[in-house]
Amino acid sequence: MNAIYKLRKVASDLGCTVEDDKENANLYVYAPDGKGWDEGTLTALVHPYGMGGSITREWRLDAITTATHRLKEMGAPIHDTDKS
Predict the structure, then answer these.
(1) Alpha-carbon distance 38 to 69, whole Å?
(2) CA spacing 20 to 30 A to 54: which of 1, 20, 47, 79?
(3) CA 82, CA 78: separation in Å to the nearest integer?
(4) Coil, strand or helix at 17
(5) Domains contained in the chain, number
(6) Beta strands 26-30 and 35-36, pairing class
(7) Which pLDDT tens digit goes with each residue over 36-47?
(8) β-strands 26-30, 44-48: how paired?
(9) Does residue 80 lie in a domain region?
(10) Which residues contact 64 (CB under 8 A, 6 or more apart)?
(11) Strand 50-51 vs strand 79-80: parallel, antiparallel, or unpaired?
């Protein structure tokens, strides 16, 4: 299975979305509106994969793999980010 597809599947199952920002070499996993991790203070997981303007396939794949493992460990974002 394609690594980015697997990450998107895991994210979707937890109610999250994935953005692969190849222009800035960042991978984002966003919690749904109003939800977050770490008591609601963390609403996106960011995994950079470029360095000094250079992007390699291996760095991107490492970021995707790390994001997948991290998301599985953290689980679904459940904390309400609206503290009012």
Answers:
(1) 17
(2) 1
(3) 12
(4) strand
(5) 1
(6) unpaired
(7) 999 999 999 999
(8) antiparallel
(9) no
(10) 3, 4, 7, 27, 47
(11) unpaired
Reply yes or no on whether the pLDDT at 84 is more than 60: no
Q: Is 67 a domain residue? A: yes
Within-domain flag for 83: no
CB-CB contact of 55 with 45 (8 Å): no
The answer to whether residue 29 sits within a structural domain is: yes
**In this predicted structure, what is the pLDDT of residue 83?**
60
pLDDT band of 82, cuts 50, 70, 90: confident
Report pLDDT for 19: 97
Backbone angles phi, psi at 15, to 5 degrees: 85, 15
Confidence at residue 77, expressed as pLDDT on a 0 to 100 scale: 95
Structural domain of 27: 3-75
The Cα-based distances of 72 to 1, 28, 52, 75 in angstroms read 17, 15, 29, 5
